[in-house]
Amino acid sequence: MSSLTAPHARYLSGTSRDERLWLLFAVAWCLVLFFAMYVWQAIGNQKTPIESYRIEPAEFRALTQDYIAAYRIGDVQGIPLVTPTEDGEAFLAARAFAFEPVLQLKKGESVRIYLSSYDFQHGLSIQPLNVNFQVLPGYLYVVNLTPTETGEFGLICNEYCGLGHHTMTGRIVVVD
Amino acid sequence: MTTASVTHPQGVAALFRTCRVTGYQVFTPVQKLIVFQAVAAVLSLATGGTLALLMALTRWEAVGLLPPELYYRFTSAHGTVMLVFWIVFFEVAALLFGGTILINHRLKGVAVAWTYTWMMATGAVLTTVMALSGHANNMFTAYPPLVNHPLWYVGILLFAVGALMACCHFVVQLWTARKEGVVAGPFSLVVYALLAAAIIAIWTLLHGALAYIPALLQSLGLITLDPAIYRTLFWGFGHGAQQINLAAMVACWYALAALTTGARPVNEGLSRLAFVLYLIGINMGSMHHLLVDPGIGMHARIINTSYFMYAALLGSLIHAFSVPAAVETAQRARGHVKGLYGWLVAGPWREPGFSSLMISLIGFGFIAGVSGVLMGTMQLNMIIHNTLFVVGHFHATVVLGTTMAFMGLSYYVIPLVMKRDLALLGMARITPYVYGAGLLTLIAGMMLAGKNGVSRRSWDATYSAGYLQVDTLSTPIITFANTLIGIGALVAVTGGIMYVLIMVGTVFFGRPSETPNVGRLGVVASPAGPVSDVTIPEFDHAATRAQAPGTTVAVFVFLGYFVLMFAWAFFNLSRVGWGIG
Ligand code: HEM
Ligand SMILES: [Cu+2]
Ligand SMILES: [Cu+2]
Are A52 and A142 a contacting pair, CB within 8 Å? Predict the structure, then answer.
């Protein structure tokens, strides 16, 4: 007999002690893995953002431009530098091939970022934290961030979005 | 025990031969089909491997081989040619093999089989030509609104319909074998595993049609696809396909364990249950790819990504015990009883099937499986999504695991089906090690780079041509990781070339023989198929002593490592510091 030949007609013969022990631990581990996600989502400090809405790319673009015009405090190499609104909201747009605007956040203050794309799918990757989100045109993803350190944080696009993909960058600045 | 004193219908009997090495009744018209599919697979692997080398030498900054357009073009082509063509051609070869030779059955509908074989070949060539000529630079995923050329989709669809027909054909084969009494009792475990793979494949390929037909229409400008809906449909196909690869790989594990050590399943029922668990997870797992996407609720994410409480993982944990335990009991029956691991040390490490099995099994468990579960944990996904870590993970699953296992099986199937000696046997003995060492280096480099923020699918790891600079991506550790990728690729591709030479050598120049030399086997021929050349005692289910002590210790060590990695990953997530939610 082997794995390559047919077994006895009755092959449900029960399990041995080592198998039962292993199965017990395996099932327990599967359950731990499963409930860990619920637990972390309830008490962890880094939760997966869930809140999202549909939005037409054109509408998102208009809202972002209005927001930039209203809250612009300067420029970073020609790209608008913008603070969150009084209510702690901000827009972050991905387009081929840049993120705009440069957001200036305050350390310890939570900001509600409305993330979407004007054109293609992109990936928002915040460096060097290495925190990553998918950006879809037509969908508004609400990402809440609370920076805990000051400095400049690079943004790169990590979803292929065309031949300029590897030039698509942006920035978040965190001040005291 | 069912003995295959098969009586074939009049006129068909003449088309059978008895394999002198395994004892199987081989329906000779199927031989050419199997070899055709296998050769198509190996040609795909050779094409994809060539591209892989060029790509890796581009990622290695010190070489920086290709310009951006070619990098993206070849990455798109590599993904398609490897993940779709190499893997599926091989799987169809395995289904043709399993649906006939492994059950001593004739192939009903040889013409049908040739039809889908040619559909697949035509589709593969069309798609590859479109990709290599720069008409499909948007990756095999081609997320809308990006699209590839319509003919690229036509090729993929033609190939997929062919593959779908092949899977259905396999199911029909098993059914007629049963109906005609060719197989009276249960199917062997390997055939059962292939059936699980085929069922998942049928479901998955139908999903593929749901994604690729609308995508074709979009590329013709007829409709506009919603990005989120497309991603959901696409990964219903793309992830399901990985479940096929998993089931097919485990089928190879059991087959290789049997061929090289004579191993028999220690618990037929439990191993089968594990495959049923894969089927329960059939429509799940697809959201691994959507864990940080907008548009999906929390419960949907958690339940889908965990295959509803990790049903599929439980299946794999069962195999993680059953496969080594089968080898252990067989080896102990051979008299290798010293200590916990004397049986392992004394394994036939010079046989390419055994080394392939072990590298695939250990590599899949410790690297691919664990990293996959971590990445598929909803929150942990945030710190790896779309980084090169993901690419490292799936080169551990589908290359170190599946490809290695497929290669291992082909060292036996091709010579036996063709009745030729395995060419370059001496080289075959070291090929799994060369390929494995290269892959380990490649995967280590990819995972290290990804952990440090390097993006996948990017020509430039540092984004230095970006308008705003990202200094943290220009660090020595990233340079080191990229160098590992380059060196690993050089070694792995060398191993790949050795494998291709062995296969091509066997098919075209192998010495014809009624008892092909495939190295040392742990089985002898019998009318039912290959059986162990030693008597292996059954597991004593009442015993209180461990029946496979080495394996029992090993799986618990593995579990401990798994727990540590899980804790470490959450520690890394918490070290992000920033509040996210
Ligand atoms: C010698 C062996 C191999 C090497 C050196 C290699 C190397 C690479 C590299 C460098 C990338 C591109 C990473 C990026 O920029 O995102 C890649 C992507 C990929 N590889 Fe491989 N690879 C090998 C074998 C395979 C095999 C055998 C398979 C499948 C069975 C495979 C499947 C893929 C897939 C699906 C992608 C993703 C393409 C995409 O992002 O669309 N590779 N590989
Ligand atoms: Cu982008
Ligand atoms: Cu991009």
Answer: yes
